[in-house]
Design goal:
With 452 residues, the protein is mainly β. The protein is 12% helix and 35% strand. It is built from 2 helices and 35 strands. The protein is globular.
């Protein structure tokens, strides 16, 4: 019953009106309950997503590594794929001596898929038939052989007289560099074709089981693993506190070096990933198997829900609701190899080199490209007569690369002018390396050449 506020006389309403009023109130309460339930479900989903992305995908086992050893190349050495942890492929402060003769040659019976490394007076190489070989870097004499069944597709990394390498039987091993004896082994769940790096006591290696592993370099103990949703065949790049590696999930992942926590995932790359991505300043240079070269800022971190927002914007653009296509966070510039008449579109297979702010990269149509890291503006280019299927390196003022036709080329870093050429007489398998004032290169028939 209601009352008049002036005289307090009772006021009666029709029963139907009261019933309608009660029904309206009940409906309103029901709507509010549903709304609150949906909001709570969304909040719970976002919290679960955050926990999964920051905790579940990694496991941490140790706080402090047992050592601080790293696969760092000393003077006259080449201790890791593309020379250093940043994979720049560059040797500064030396003069390339333009070798004219083969100093020595060592033959195996099957193709070699990896790049040699040289530390001290020893050369270490993974082979197609003999496992891991140690040779005298000066004369090619065999020192020891760690035999495994089947080919080895992982370039070794050397740190503190230990040789680290992955095997196709899913094992990752550490070998004593002095005698070839096994120190420890770690088993992943699929074959390993990626090349390792060692930084501050931790060795990083990707596997076909879609995990990136961080292992203690002395003990082999697992420190953490990060599941990256795709096959990992590239060598990780290390810069400051960040590990960078692509996977066949079409993403380039940026992880915290100490914990494996995801910082950023750049999407949309080709499933055919590069063997390594070099660093210059704030930029990681990514060349993939679709013939696209990108520069991405590795310092940026991805915040919760940022990727979802980007996807919503992309869908809005596809449905023509949004005028401009969204740009992924961290993207600086990109280049795609144009089509050439009567030729398939060129691809990038080998790793680029970076020196003095310039990117050097070869494609499968035989062209050596140069770009400024700062803005992606193209510089000089050189047309060879055969496919460039291996990595490029820079020694002093000379850019060096090999081609399928067996020729090694040396170009002026400044002008692109041909300054040296050498024919080994058979197809070149991998990019050259420079150590001990000699140039080392492997062939597809399974031979190792030292040029002096």
């Amino acid at each position: 019953m209601l009352h008049c506020k002036s005289c307090w006389t009772a006021i009666y309403r029709d029963d139907a009106e009261i019933v309608a009023r009660k029904g309206f109130i009940k409906s309103e309460v029901k709507v509010k309950r549903v709304t609150y339930s949906v909001l709570l479900l969304l909040l719970g989903w976002f919290i679960a997503l955050w926990v999964w992305s920051n905790v579940v995908h990694q496991t941490t086992f140790a706080d402090i590594p047992a050592s601080m050893i790293s696969s760092v190349s000393g003077p006259g050495e080449w201790a890791v794929f593309q020379h250093n942890l940043q994979h720049t492929g560059t040797v500064e402060g030396v003069a390339f001596s333009f070798p004219q003769d083969v100093e020595w040659r060592f033959d195996t019976e099957r193709p070699i898929e990896t790049v040699p490394v040289v530390v001290g007076e020893k050369l270490f190489v993974s082979t197609g038939d003999r496992g891991i070989l140690a040779l005298d870097a000066n004369n090619g004499d065999a020192l020891w052989n760690y035999y495994v069944e089947g080919p080895v597709s992982s370039t070794p990394a050397v740190a503190d007289d230990r040789v680290f390498v992955g095997l196709r039987n899913s094992e990752f091993i550490a070998i004593d560099a002095s005698n070839g004896k096994l120190i420890w082994t770690f088993d992943t769940d699929n074959i390993i074709t990626a090349s390792p790096v060692v930084d501050r006591g931790v060795v990083y290696i990707g596997s076909g089981d879609k995990n990136l592993y961080a292992l203690d370099a002395i003990t082999g103990q697992e420190r953490w693993r990060s599941h990256l949703y795709g096959w990992i065949s590239a060598s990780p790049t290390i810069v400051e506190e960040v590990v960078i590696v692509p996977s066949t999930d079409r993403k380039l992942f940026f992880l915290d070096r100490s914990s494996g926590k995801l910082r950023q995932a750049y999407a949309g790359i080709a499933t055919s990933s590069p063997v390594a991505s070099p660093i210059w300043g704030d930029d990681v240079i990514f060349a993939d198997g679709s013939g696209v070269l990108r520069s991405i800022d590795w310092r940026l971190e991805e915040y919760p829900f940022e990727k979802s927002i980007f996807k919503w914007k992309a869908n809005a653009y596809l449905w023509k609701i949004r005028k401009d296509a969204p740009i992924q966070k961290g993207y600086n510039w990109g280049y795609r190899i144009p089509r050439v008449e009567n030729l398939p579109r060129g691809r990038f297979i080998g790793a680029p080199a970076v020196s003095d702010g310039i990117v050097f990269v070869g494609d499968t149509n035989g062209k050596l490209h140069t770009f400024r890291v700062e803005d992606g503006i193209a510089g000089w280019s050189y047309e060879s007569k055969s496919a460039i299927e291996a990595s490029v390196i820079v020694v002093g003022d000379v850019v060096l690369f090999g081609c399928r036709d067996g020729k090694l080329y040396g170009l002026s870093k400044e002008s692109g002018e041909l300054v040296w050429q050498f024919d080994i007489g058979e197809p070149i398998a991998t990019g050259p390396i420079f150590a001990n004032d000699m140039l080392y290169v492997t062939s597809k028939s399974g031979s190792i050449y030292a040029l002096n």
